[in-house]
Amino acid sequence: MNVKILLKSLFVVLVLLLLVLMGMNNRGLVDFVLPPLVPKVLRQPAALMYFAFFAIGFLTGTIVWAGGGKKGGASSRTSSDRK
User: Per the domain annotation, does 50 fall within a domain?
Assistant: First the structure.
């Protein structure tokens, strides 16, 4: 098994454990105010807010780091292929 994959999996499990702990201990309601996008004040449990912000950050990171591999085309050909 690849050590890099194992470490990444362990990190994800630890972050999820942190989310579970926050959800169990932060049951109070919090206000979320974002006037340009949400005109009303949202009152949600703190645990739900933590999860939502984690999900948004995770998806943002996934989108930013996804792809980026070598694209096929003229630049990938070697000099011996260009005849």
Answer: yes
